[in-house]
Specification:
By secondary structure, the chain is an alpha/beta fold. It is built from six helices and nine strands. Helix 1 packs antiparallel against helix 2 and helix 2 packs across helix 4. The structure holds S-adenosyl-L-homocysteine.
């Protein structure tokens, strides 16, 4: 194969298939999530210099001290959020590079995503537009506040950790809806909160590592 044909564009579909196989061995079973991750080119969400590592099972830097979540954590959170059924309106907090947003766009009718760092949001917007994902709305804002106007949401997912359950977000969760987030300050655990007609039930799952949620917005 000559250099012209060995570029990331040629290999990415194959690499993506390998990523999906790895996700299966790691315990991801939701075929809809696996199909969504097979469809989204993860390498376009990272700097070109990191593109060859985009499908490895690692978090990679995306500037401003933030990271793109590993494929496994994106799959795991998407699977927990979906819990086997199609999602209507979803809220994501922490768009970052926009990769999880793109995956969610395949799983839900409408996706709203809030990011506090302006320049990250600008880049995410360009990538999502390239992929023609028209059911996504990106907002520059403080995710602790959620989005009151399009609320309630059938699913809410946080890509940054909070020490305590963010109550303003819980109020934006529809009955029948689910919120998935990393909870804790020192040690963090995946937390799933379900909103049913009786109230809220919380389930704590495995230990995880995320950057912390930071209040307020950053322009620039
Ligand atoms: N899913 C993203 C994760 C990026 S890391 C990806 O894979 O790229 C977490 C993101 O949460 C960062 O971009 C960070 O800026 C953002 N974040 C942290 N606190 C926030 C807040 N209060 N509101 C909105 N976004 C926040």
């Amino acid at each position: 194969m000559n250099a012209h044909h060995s570029g990331i564009g040629m290999t990415s579909q194959r690499t993506r298939v390998r990523m999906i196989e790895r996700l299966r061995t790691q315990g991801i079973v939701d075929e809809v999530v696996l199909a969504a991750m097979n469809a989204i080119p993860r390498h376009i969400f990272v700097e070109e210099i990191l593109a060859s590592r985009a499908y490895d099972d690692v978090a990679l830097p995306i500037n401003f001290g933030q990271t793109i979540s590993s494929p496994f954590i994106v799959a795991r959170m998407s699977e927990l959020l979906r819990a086997g059924s199609t999602l209507g309106r979803v809220l994501e907090i922490g768009s970052g590079c926009g990769y999880q947003t793109a995956v969610l766009a395949q799983l839900a009718r409408e996706v709203y995503s809030v990011e506090r760092i302006g320049p990250l949001l600008t880049r995410a917007r360009i990538r999502l537009r390239q992929l023609r994902l028209n059911n996504v709305r990106l907002k520059h804002g403080d995710g602790f506040l959620g989005l009151s106007e399009p609320a309630p949401f059938d699913g809410i997912v946080l890509s940054a950790a909070t020490a305590h359950t963010p109550h303003q977000l819980l109020e934006q969760l529809a009955v029948g809806g689910r919120m998935v987030f990393p909870k804790g300050s020192g040690e963090q655990f995946l937390c799933v909160i379900e909103h049913n007609s009786q109230g809220y039930t919380e389930t704590m799952l495995e230990e995880v590592r995320f950057v912390p949620m930071v209040p307020g917005i950053l322009k620039g």
